[in-house]
Specification:
Layout lengths: L1 H6 L3 H15 L3 H13 L3 E4 L4 E4 L1 H7 L5 H10 L3 H11 L4 E3 H6 L4 H9 L3 E4 L2 E4 L2 H7 L1
Antiparallel strand pairs: 1-2, 3-5, 4-5
Helix pairs in contact: 2-3, 3-5, 5-9, 6-8
Length: 142
């Protein structure tokens, strides 16, 4: 229903795509977002001005993106990020899945870069703790 709402199309049009996205991402919300970003960036899902709606080919998406390569998807996406952000989250990943901001302060890691990591969906902050949004993200970066 969510995909249907976001694409402004009836469920009957988006059902197969939604099932494919769910299957490829394992239903994980973070991986769903990353998977959708990836198929949009690779022009497998796009808005057609002529048709005045979103268009895709599930067979093409299915062949190009295999669910066993979620880590590869993350790595590809990660490598497209700014170098300073990559270096920062690599350092943070050495501490495990979470780290206290006081430790990051000792390392002189910029708060702006950490906010960039949050905006990219790599990390989240709860009080003084920064943590990766998923263990697989931390493991892939490490």
């Amino acid at each position: 229903k969510l995909l249907s709402a976001k694409l402004c199309l009836p469920i009957r049009y988006t059902k197969k795509l939604a099932e494919l996205v769910s299957s490829k991402s394992g239903g994980n919300p973070f991986f769903i977002v990353q998977f959708l970003k990836s198929i949009i960036e690779n022009r497998m899902l796009g808005f057609s001005i002529d048709e005045k709606r979103w268009m895709w080919d599930c067979d093409v998406i299915d062949m190009k993106m295999i669910s066993d390569e979620v880590a590869q998807l993350l790595t590809t996406r990660f490598n497209q990020l700014p170098l300073l952000l990559i270096q920062t989250v690599k350092i943070v990943s050495c501490f495990g899945s979470q780290v206290d901001e006081s430790m990051l302060g000792l390392l002189n890691l910029g708060e702006d870069v950490l906010h960039m990591a949050i905006n990219e969906g790599l990390m989240e902050k709860a009080g003084p703790i920064y943590q990766f949004t998923h263990d697989l993200i931390q493991q892939t970066i490490y």
